[in-house]
Design goal:
Blueprint (H helix, E strand, L loop, with lengths): L6 E3 L7 E6 L12 H5 L2 H4 L1 E5 L4 E4 L5 E4 L15 H20 L7 E6 L1 H12 L6 E5 L14 E7 L7 H13 L3 E7 L7 H15 L2
Parallel strand pairs: 2-3, 2-6, 6-7, 7-8, 8-9
Antiparallel strand pairs: 1-3, 4-5
Helix pairs in contact: 3-4
Length: 215
């Protein structure tokens, strides 16, 4: 798989924390770049934003048409057929990005993984498999593809739309229960929206980031 360099937005001063934010199916790293200004926490938290690009690959659900994807999607029954190998490749790539931040002096307890839809699947899978946990995971309109790993000590901000017709809200509820069973500390929120983001959601994420990364 070929990965393009991620979009990186530096804070006005030296970075002392970071968020690696993974986009959804068919998008790219530029999709969530506007959240850096919308959240309005970059300067206060010394927060670096990293927005990776998924590689372009055929997606079965879309008739094999190539598009940016973190893994293949076999059908709309997301929880029934999982591209475990594809998720593992993306987790490996995310771990490489994490290692880059650690080498650059960002402590693991000041590093947040975030992802929307497919990106959230990868972020959750990666964090649950990590022996030492990051500062938290922002899981947006997403699901737990594989109930594996250990969530002990892992804070998760979970946000989902009650009208989501791509990842149904019932799947989000099941995901929250699975994460709690694995030991994660889940802050679960729902919003009057479909498969996208909501202004109140952005405000809630900003508050959660301030709580996790203050100091």
């Amino acid at each position: 798989m070929e990965y393009q360099p991620p979009v990186i937005l530096e804070p006005p001063s030296t970075a002392r924390s970071a968020v690696i934010w993974l986009h959804g199916l068919g998008a790219d790293g530029n999709d969530f770049v506007p959240v850096a200004s919308e959240l309005n926490v970059q300067q206060a938290l010394g927060l670096r934003f990293i927005f990776p690009h998924a590689p372009v690959q055929p997606v079965t659900l879309n008739g094999g048409y190539p598009m940016p994807a973190w893994y293949d999607v076999y059908s709309s029954a997301l929880e029934q057929q999982i591209d475990a190998a594809g998720i593992a490749r993306s987790v490996d790539y995310l771990n490489a990005l994490i290692a880059d931040q650690l080498r650059d002096g960002i402590a693991l307890n000041r590093l947040v993984l975030a992802g929307f839809s497919q990106g959230g699947v990868v972020a959750l899978d990666c964090a649950l498999r990590m022996r030492e946990k990051p500062a938290g995971v922002i899981a947006l309109s997403t699901y737990l593809a594989q109930s594996v790993g250990d969530g002990t000590g892992l804070p998760v901000f979970q946000a989902h739309g009650v009208q989501d017709d791509v990842v149904p809200f019932t799947i989000a509820q099941t995901t929250a229960q699975q994460l709690q069973t694995l030991g994660a500390q889940v802050d679960s929120r729902h919003y009057p929206m479909a498969h996208h983001v909501h202004p109140q959601e952005m405000r809630d994420i900003a508050d959660w980031l301030r709580m996790r990364l203050v100091g």
